[in-house]
Design brief:
Distance between the termini of chain A: 50 Å
Distance between the termini of chain B: 18 Å
Number of domains of chain A: 1
Number of helices of chain A: 12
Mean pLDDT of chain B: 82
Mean pLDDT of chain A: 97
CATH class of chain A: Alpha Beta
Structural class of chain A: alpha/beta
CATH architecture of chain A: 3-Layer(bba) Sandwich
Low-confidence stretches of chain B: 1-9, 29-64
Strand content of chain A: 15-25%
Helix content of chain B: 40-55%
Number of strands of chain B: 0
Helix content of chain A: 10-25%
Radius of gyration of chain A: 23 Å
Oligomer: heterodimer
CATH topology of chain A: FAD/NAD(P)-binding domain
Largest interface: A-B, 71 and 75 residues
Number of domains of chain B: 2
């Protein structure tokens, strides 16, 4: 029997950045909020003294426990999908704070081009430049409209950076200066300058100095201890939801976080969401939490799966092109969009590779988005090339020059020699949506509670492969200029297929936004067109993937969504339509 | 405590400030002595990780005797353990740089991992249908038999016994008594997936063996390998340091004595 609980103003799935931001803004305005979080309770205290590579980078202690739930994966529609069984193929966030605990802290904004990608492409190159199976579309919002929310998130999260010479316009400077300069960052910057490019420091959520945000939360100055990615910060120096928005919400007394609460579906009457049905995984008891507004603030997979299992919205059908839920799945794919590039080996130089911070590094925007003229190129969108000094750890880093065996005497000798004598630069490229890359429910596999798993189908388009090749070639050019004695350059083969690794945590789509209910599931306030008290917020709303890390853009849209929720609680109705009427 | 001594150089000044802010953080988090947690844990964290920075070596007293206390948790047959020891030593051999897998404690590390949650794939999705023979385009779907119905403990037993069988078949002696060249010959055939196996591919087992050996060589000594942090010392990786704020801008390579979690956490 489902036990029905007392109604609250808002119930939220997930306590990561998106759920945290929504909770902070709603509770500050006096609303009672419940967050349902399937992971365990975490505090900063849990992260102190946890510089343990085996536990966090090899056993994935902070990631989603896949024995409870996972996804299935295939690389074309005609195949049966395989379940992703082990965290080495899926670093998905879990626990209070979500993926916001273990992110690196790279804090880029996306480009004006991204939000109006269809119009700007047609305007510059003509309609025939849009690839045949592309489902790319404008987002229904411009960069200028989003800018104030970017600014707000950056101030909440202590972002430390300097303006990119080729970056989008800003209403204010970063709240903190860039992090410390290092010899390897200088090497990258000098090489790219010599080649005529425009290096700048990667903006980071690892704070360059101790900082108090507008909500009164303090983020410490980073000590460069090199345990960021996959780790909670041992020193409170990386902006995360626990130390910022969740703390802010908790201070109001209006927030309750319920841990070990696995949401099974959205309850609704076809017109309005009535609440969330979840299982307390400590007892097995199922509850319904009624609320005036329901917010899905889970990862892309959670948000999409919940809509499909709750039968809200029309599922996307790749054969007919009809339907919307599950459409436009994109991401930074392991063997295509990131982690590929050029590795240089140096004979006479030795670097402090083991020092670093997740967001420490430099990048160039010369080839980002549409910054380069694509008239004569066989792809759209672009790539940013960066060097990052996030800190190498010894189990994961055994890089050796090509031709070295993978084990034995020679391997040991070379891997010891080059641990502090190699550098890697990578091209992170955008990924444009196509008709055959999407999500639906798996017909065979179920989670521990009996819900069908989400199935992901990823098909690379020719132009995605061409874009990746161009990025790798640029990495090779830059690494050569950096003076490497030997180089290993990744090869992107023409017949490369998706390798089922959901390792980057940068995935998008399924519940995409837009200005038109015919081609989008939510408006630009992440409010469902067909169920106005249901907000589906996060990467799930992005119609495509840019060449930058996504967290800041997710944070910005979460602030916009929270504004929409407040407005809806006051006035009701579709807040995007109301807003456009106001401006007319 | 080092914060009572005024810093002598600008580098020390930077380090000093970061240390001070660390103390403040711990204090604010209620983690310092007198806070939520007793003084033992975090008081120790501070005295060990911060104040020993200037000292020559940080070695836990217990480390010296640790290898004498080891025994098998997972492997019931001593012979399986001997095959494991010989194979890991070939993967990470003792040489002029320092100890190999056996002296680092790698076989015990693997034995202990297999006896725990990892050995039974406790965090993995474990529902059927399972697939063993994957389509070529799906073969990256998981390292070390991710799609296999076998758990890691089974994989190790199957793999090590197969290695031993191959040695018996080819050289009429057990794997651990075979010559170095003979062991390497068998292992290369596993790596190249030339040995037919049921339930898992030889190459997938071999990948698992390589990865586990490196984990044992380089994980924190608390897991039973990386004896006396010798793996880290060879690799010039200094372990769980509190801060690099004072060094990270400098051009020179910084050699630091490694710090283990036992010292960092202040046990």
């Amino acid at each position: 029997m489902v036990k029905k609980l007392d109604k609250v103003d808002a119930v939220i799935v997930g306590s990561g950045w998106v759920g945290g931001i929504a909770a902070a803004e709603l509770t500050k305005a006096g609303h009672k909020v419940v967050i349902l979080e399937r992971g365990s309770d975490k505090k900063h205290e849990d992260f102190v003294g946890t510089k343990d590579e085996l536990r966090y980078s090899k056993r994935y202690d902070l990631m989603q426990d896949l024995n409870k739930s996972t996804i299935t994966s295939r690389n074309s529609m005609d195949k049966e999908a395989l379940p992703v069984r082990n965290n080495s193929n899926a670093r998905l966030g879990n626990h209070t704070g979500g993926a916001g605990n273990h992110w690196n802290g790279m804090a880029f904004r996306w480009l004006p081009y991204d939000f109006e990608i269809y119009s700007k492409t047609v305007e510059r190159y003509g309609k025939e430049k849009i690839p045949k199976n592309s489902t790319m579309q404008d987002w229904g919002i411009t960069y200028d409209e989003l800018e104030p929310y970017y600014d707000k998130y950056e101030k909440t999260a202590a972002i430390s950076g300097e303006e990119s010479p080729l970056g989008p316009p800003r209403s204010d400077k970063y709240p903190n200066p860039p992090m410390k300069d290092t010899p390897t960052i200088r090497l990258f910057s000098e090489a790219t300058k010599k080649l005529g490019y425009h290096p700048y420091r990667i903006p980071s959520a690892n704070a360059s100095q101790t900082y108090t945000n507008p909500d009164g939360e303090t983020i410490n100055g980073c000590v460069y201890c090199a345990f960021c990615e996959e780790y909670g910060c041992d020193f409170g120096a990386k902006a995360d939801p626990i130390g910022t928005v969740l703390a802010t919400a908790q201070k109001t007394g209006n927030l309750e976080i319920r841990n070990e609460a696995h949401v099974n579906r959205v309850s609704h009457d076809g017109k309005k969401a009535t609440g969330l049905v979840y299982t307390d995984t400590m007892t097995g008891q199922e509850y319904e939490q009624p609320a005036d507004i329901v917010v899905l603030a889970g990862f892309v997979f959670t948000n999409t799966q919940l809509l499909l299992t709750s039968k809200i919205g029309q599922p996307y059908d790749p054969i007919t092109g009809q339907g919307i839920i599950g459409k436009n799945f994109t991401g930074h794919f392991n063997n295509l969009s990131t982690y590929i590039g050029a590795r240089g080996f140096f004979e006479d130089k030795k670097f402090n590779n083991f020092m670093g911070t997740g967001g420490l590094g430099a990048s160039i925007d010369d080839f980002s988005g549409d910054n380069e003229d694509h008239t004569d190129l066989d792809f759209l969108h672009g790539y940013e090339v960066h060097y990052s000094q996030l800190g190498t750890r010894p189990i994961s880093h055994n890089e050796v020059p090509e031709g070295t065996p993978k084990w034995g005497k020679e391997f040991k000798k070379q891997s010891l020699k080059y641990f502090n004598r190699n550098l890697f630069i990578t091209a992170q490229s955008g990924f444009l949506p196509n008709r055959y890359t999407y999500m639906d429910l798996d017909p065979a596999y179920k989670d521990a509670l009996g819900n069908p798993l989400l199935r992901v189908t990823v098909t690379y388009d020719k132009q995605d492969i061409n874009r990746a090749k161009a990025g790798v070639a640029r990495c090779e050019e830059i690494m050569k200029e950096m003076g490497a004695d030997q180089m290993t350059v990744d090869v992107v083969k023409d017949d490369i297929v998706f390798d089922h690794k959901f390792f980057t945590d940068h995935f998008f789509g399924g519940v995409i936004m837009g200005a038109d209910p015919a081609t989008s599931a939510v408006n630009t306030y992440s409010q469902m067109w067909e169920m106005e008290n249901l907000f589906v917020v996060g990467g799930s709303s992005f119609p495509h993937n840019s060449n930058y890390n996504p967290t800041v853009t997710i944070g910005a849209f979460a602030y916009r969504a929270a504004e929409g929720m407040l407005k809806y609680l006051k006035e009701g109705g579709n807040v995007a339509l109301a807003a456009s009427k106001e401006t007319v | 405590m080092s914060d009572k001594r005024p810093p002598r150089t600008s580098k020390e000044e930077a380090q000093h400030q970061q240390d001070m802010s660390r103390r403040k953080f711990l204090k604010n988090s209620g983690l310092l002595a007198g806070g939520l947690v007793g003084g033992g844990l975090f008081g120790g964290l501070i005295t060990n990780s911060f104040d020993k920075k200037e000292e020559k070596a940080v070695v836990s007293k217990k480390d010296n005797n640790r290898m004498d206390e080891q025994a098998r948790q997972f492997f019931t047959r001593h012979h399986d353990f001997n095959v494991l020891s010989a194979a890991t030593e070939q993967i990470f051999p003792e040489d002029e740089h320092g100890p190999g897998a056996i002296k680092l404690g790698v076989p015990y590390y693997i034995d202990q991992q297999l006896a725990g949650r990892w050995g039974i794939n406790g965090r993995d999705y474990r529902h059927s249908p399972y697939a063993v023979d994957l389509d070529k385009s799906d073969q990256q779907a998981g390292p070390a038999g991710e799609q296999s119905i076998l758990d890691r403990g089974h994989l190790f037993l199957l793999g090590l016994r197969k290695m031993d069988d191959e040695s018996q078949k080819r050289f009429s002696k057990p794997f651990d008594e075979a010559d170095e060249d003979q062991q390497i010959e068998v292992m290369k055939d596993f790596e190249d997936n030339k040995i037919p196996m049921k339930g898992v591919k030889a190459s997938e087992f071999f990948n698992l063996l390589i990865n586990s050996t490196l984990e044992g060589a380089y994980s924190d000594p608390l897991y039973g390998g990386n004896y006396n942090m010798e793996g880290w010392k060879m690799k010039e990786f200094p372990g769980a340091q509190a801060s690099y704020a004072g060094y990270i801008e400098q051009d020179e390579f910084k050699k630091l004595e490694p710090v283990s979690l036992r010292d960092y956490q202040g046990h």
